[in-house]
Amino acid sequence: MFEELLWFILAVILVTLIVNRFTATKNLPPGPFPLPIIGNAHKISHDSRHLDLTALEKQYGKVFRLYLGSQLVIVVSGGNAVKEVLVTKSAEFAGRLSLYTLEIYLQNGDGIAFADYSPKWRLHRKIVVSALKMYSNGKLKQESIINDEFDLLLKRVASRNGQPHDMTKEIRLAVTNVICTLVFGSRYELDDPEFTKVIEITEGIVKMVASGSVVDALPWLRFFPFKSVQNLKEKCNERDELVENPQDLTDALLKTKKEAEDEDSSIKGFLTDQQLIMTMSEVFLGGSETTAGALCWALLHLIYNPGVQQKLHQELDQVIGPDRLPELRDNEKLPYVKATITETLRISSIGPVAFHKTTVDTTLQGYDIPKGATVLVNLWSLHHDPAIWDEPDDFRPERFLDEDGKFVPPRADRFLPFSAGRRSCLGEHLARIELFLAFSRLLHNFKFENPPGCDLPTLKPITETGTSIIMFEELLWFILAVILVTLIVNRFATTKNLPPGPFPLPIIGNAHKISYDSRHLDLTALEKQYGKVFRLYLGSQLMICVSGGNALKEVLVTKSAEFAGRPSLYTLDVYSQNGDAVAFADYSPKWRLHRKIVVSALKIYSTSRLKQGSIINDEFDLLLKRVASRNGQPHDITKEIRLAVTNVICALVFGSRYELEDPEFTKVIEITEGILKMIASGSVVDALPWLRFFPFKSVQNLKKKCNERDELVGRIYREHVEANRVENPQDLTDALLKAKKEAEDEDSSIKGFLTDQQLIMTMSEVFIGGNETTASALCWALLYLIYNPEVQQKLHQELDQVIGPDRLPELRDNEKLPYVKATITETLRLSSLGPSALHKTTVDTTLQGYDIPKGTTVLVNLWSLHHDPAIWDEPDDFRPERFLDEDGKFVPPRADRFLPFSAGRRSCLGEHLARIELFLAFSRLLYNFKFENPPGCDLPTLKPITGLVLMPQPFSVCAFKRHAR
After folding, report:
1. Which helix (H) or strand (E) holds 852?
2. Which residues bind heme (predicted)?
3. CA distance 495 to 798
4. Which residues 6+ apart lie within 8 Å of 558 measured at CB?
5. Where are the alpha helices (DSSP H) in 493-561?
6. Per-residue pLDDT tens for 408-448?
7. Residue 192's CB: how many other CB atoms inside 10 A?
8. Does the reported pTM lie above 0.90?
9. What is the rounded CA–CA span in Å between residue 928 and residue 724?
């Protein structure tokens, strides 16, 4: 009751804060109604915010308002309004937001791009403009620097001899070196350790500033040691050390500063060395990221539009000829090149939005805009407005040419790739020179094509800009903090004899110790510090982390019932229809009955091993044909494997497979991928359950996908009920219906206890769970073989000796292929697909002598178990031989050291089917093909995509046929 009272006070304060902010100004632009606490944040999704803002614009007009939390944001996209913000009233809209991560990046406001508007900023900008003007007089030197670097790029690309390679990486290296030369006065060799450091610093800062931080939302949290903030500080310090002694553009900055001080002695010392260093940093970081991005977009659009590339080649051949390379003086003679670059800048809209802030109370298009309001200029909308651009989503350079083929510059109020006014990009002139020279030379020398047999690259951009803009009054935040600390202390003090662990901070607990994409590694690192059993707090939620053998056995086997619960997470409740599934449902008598029936159904179905083998073999034989048809050309094998595995699961669970081009199969794939992606990414609603009453877009999308899943699976289930094949089950759904009938015949009191909805959810779980884990395991296996060709060679030798040239491996060959079994086992160990398993205590209990209260989340760290150097020699090495004896016979790993499917009451019920499918699919793929990395390409990354399982990132292979059959 005490906690409920405090939560109520918390809510009242938050609502007061928001109502106070929302009612401050009456004559605001129109916009959607803001919800308490979150405002309109649910209207904007992270990876498509420019599209979401454009959609809202259609509803509310070219000027509308949003609230992100309690922060007023005015969104502007129409030509007249954009002109008023950027030009007519430039000074009134020239401010910049104050975000803690940007303060670190700027050394508390010492830069230009993100510093707030002030007399000091105006002087700083004036000196930078003068320096750039002075430096731009040396066009020939600039051109020479750019040409020299891109000539080296041309040689590197030519050395690939037309083989597939990552062009984006090559371009970023060249552009970074150009910027180093222009700003610092010297270039680096690509293998220079300092250049590697430059790249690392650039990518690190851009990623960390772009992704934002919870500290931007709650500024007073800056006093806590957030990992992301500490990393940003380190990178910025490394950056400042790097740029302390450069030349060239820096010389121009120093000269213009001296001239300004000579002209007006009162400003002497007003502009510090630190500010000039920050200016160099901004030119360096901004210039490398935007120019490289524009060049990569240009080549990507040419791959999609070979007709445009052909016209570029024709113009370059006619104007330049074969005996020289394009130069800056050729700019006006190459209108189609200029039009293509302009169209790239328009359609890609690299900087889709520009953030400003009002410096005074002002007006915009007749609306009152208060001082300090965030103003977001939606440049993407301007560049894709069908009222301005005919068919705006088409890549068509001709829109910038007249009837005679001459270049027609776009109108300044319709085309703003570098923004405009006081906050426009100061490096525009340099960027345009570099873009023209780099692009024209690449196209003069090469024809770019998509690698044969590979899908076209996606046109979906990587969107990373953060939107953490929530500023509340300090006094009320202080009250909130006191209440939350009280809540947390109250929670922390309930049990005394807990395992050791790091000290929890107010509000966030130990959340700052765990990063999303490496949480299994972070937990393993904490284990080394605190032991095999330790505690964490995520917010105020107690979590016990377990990884040691004895403790694991106690959780999963000895006290299985006491640790058999599941934590309640809202997204999982949506997924499982409030507990109607088995995997994510909480422990209860109903769950025990449900699980018993599922185990019986799997036992019934597993008696037809030959039929299962036939289904798997038939589907993977089709996969073998599709792979063979590639004739050794590079292709994305992960996509092919996922399609085959999905169809196998369809056949095993639903009783029939799909043709790959069947629209319903496309729907099945879309539903599966959508649900997995949304559950894996989690939701703020899981951390703050009371937010479930607000319409978060991610939760709405998950509900939509789950409803589509239930509609599809429900229809198939009803067809099975009508067919009534319980006496002769044909698939797992028939087996479920038979097991349910047998259980009800045996005990009439449970009749109706297990509903149709629960059986539908069971089908869904087997379908989605079996799909993702099996497909990922196969993909990991092939990826490890690319890294370890000697293992693949041994597999081929064993398969040739045992199977021979005239048939394919079958399930009966399992025991005759010890090296195949060892390789699959090593794949499951090293990849640790399910790196952790979440449990919950069902009663007050003990673990290794510690007291664990009822309702505690218990995380079993299987990744740590599978990578423990005390158990596994050189655990990070892929070595199937660890599961073979001296005679080459397979030695099964000890059950307490190897748990890829977990153990006990919460173990994976589909383990048996998964092992059959893994063996047949893997052995047949290796029997038929030799897999190699595409020539000239870097090895694929071993860094996983972190979700419900650790999935390998998509990768391409060349598959060479080994047998004539």
Report:
1. strand 850-852
2. 908
3. 57
4. none
5. 519-530, 549-553
6. 999 988 999 988 888 888 778 888 999 999 999 999 999 99
7. 12
8. no
9. 40
